[in-house]
Design goal:
With 389 residues, this protein is α/β, with parallel strands linked by helices. Helix content is 41%, strand content 16%. The chain is flat and about 80 Å long.
């Protein structure tokens, strides 16, 4: 049943499995949707979709399968012309329960039959013809648990197709930029489990082992509690071609400050040289060598920038774009030092991946750091790489 929905989800790379599909069939066989198309929309989504990131793709698949009913455009136009705009029909709850609810196939067949056989006279009220203020499943300003709205302009009862049509979750797609909440979620993936604090947690397995080794005399073994912690260094490109991405990087910075207690952050312009900045606006600098020497090797490092600059800024001494700034070493050497010091390091690029191959400086930096798009899917891949490195 509804196998076209399963196929539509697969075409959109939604990871729905056969077991989940069979679970949906079981739910339908037990009438958990209660003959409601809207309930079916939410029931199927709750069973088949595992993450909010796929809600928009689900809505698209749902619209593809259930959003269109084949009909003659001219007949629809003539029907709409005869629909009178009258006050909506209001029924009591008991009257609503008496109205027949159709399944999808019955609805399609009856709608096609009405279009082909109904006369063009206006119909007000009634339970069968396309009209207004009736209990028919076709028309406007009436009531039916399952129906096709024509010419009404707005949804009064939020039927499933209209809910999917709104695409409320389109901002949760994998290929769009992130908000602060999404940044926090993804950054939490790189938390490390460490033991710290006083030894006040009983090690049950260790206690049993020690007691057995001690000829049955009870011996308690205590250990420190396990806590999740992130040690993160965030290096951010600021100014110039990064201006269009300032708001996005600000969200990442805000999320990192909120979720990461052990956070070091610095700014640079285009490339890292012998200095980085704690406040690039006020030009408050700190020696890059000092940062590298004093920070522990277990820091995870995320560099954020569009990697867009003249090749000389990367490859030449005194190649910095600021005329008055003198960098004795090429920027690429400093980037290489960062990668050698912190093996768990990635580069996040706010520009689309399709542009990277056409930018020489981006290609050079990609040889030093694994590079990912600054999107939801890109950050997920990047954080997975940080954990696995």
């Amino acid at each position: 049943m509804f196998v076209n929905l399963f196929r539509a989800l697969k075409r959109r790379d939604v990871p729905v499995t056969f077991n989940e599909w069979m679970l949906l069939q079981q739910a339908l066989s037990e009438n958990l949707m209660e003959s409601s198309f809207t309930r079916f929309y939410y029931l199927a989504r709750s069973i088949l979709i595992k993450t909010e990131a796929h809600f928009d793709k689900y809505d698209q698949a749902f619209l593809e399968c259930f959003g269109d009913i084949d009909s003659d455009a001219d007949l629809i136009r003539r029907i709409e012309e005869n629909l009178q705009k009258l006050p909506p029909l209001e029924l009591t709850e008991e009257e609503k329960r008496m109205v027949e609810a159709l399944n999808l196939e019955e609805l399609r067949e009856r709608f096609r039959d009405r279009l082909l056989n109904q006369d063009d006279e206006p119909h007000v009220g009634g339970n069968k013809q396309v009209g207004v203020r009736g209990r028919s499943p076709f028309g406007a300003w009436g009531y039916n648990p399952a129906g096709v709205r024509i010419g009404q302009g707005v949804s009064r009862h939020r039927r499933a197709v209209q809910v999917a049509e709104e695409r409320t979750f389109k901002n949760y797609r994998d290929d769009v930029m992130l908000d602060t909440r999404a940044f926090k979620t993804v950054l939490s993936y790189i938390r490390q489990v460490v033991r710290e604090g006083p030894k006040d947690l009983l090690d049950v397995e260790g206690t049993i082992d020690a007691t057995c080794r001690n000829a049955g005399e009870l011996e308690f073994i205590w250990e420190r509690a396990r806590k999740k912690r992130i040690k993160l260094m965030l290096l951010m490109d600021a100014g110039g071609t990064m201006e269009p991405h300032m708001e996005l990087v600000s969200r990442l910075f805000s999320a990192a400050k909120d979720i990461v207690k052990d956070l070091q952050f610095y700014f640079f312009h285009n490339c890292v040289y012998q200095e980085m900045y704690t406040d690039i606006h006020q030009m408050e600098a700190v020696p890059t060598r000092k940062v590298l020497d004093e920070a522990g090797r277990n820091y995870k490092v995320i560099l954020v920038g569009d990697a867009y600059m003249a090749p000389s800024e990367l490859l030449s001494p005194n190649g910095a774009i600021d005329y008055w700034y003198r960098n004795d070493r090429p920027g690429i050497e400093w980037l290489t030092d960062i990668r050698k010091r912190f093996r768990k390091a990635i580069w996040l690029n706010p520009e689309p991946r399709s542009w990277w191959s056409s930018v020489p400086s981006t290609q050079i930096i990609r040889r030093v750091f694994p590079m990912y798009e600054l999107t939801l899917e890109g950050m997920r891949a990047g954080t997975r790489a940080l954990v696995k490195q």
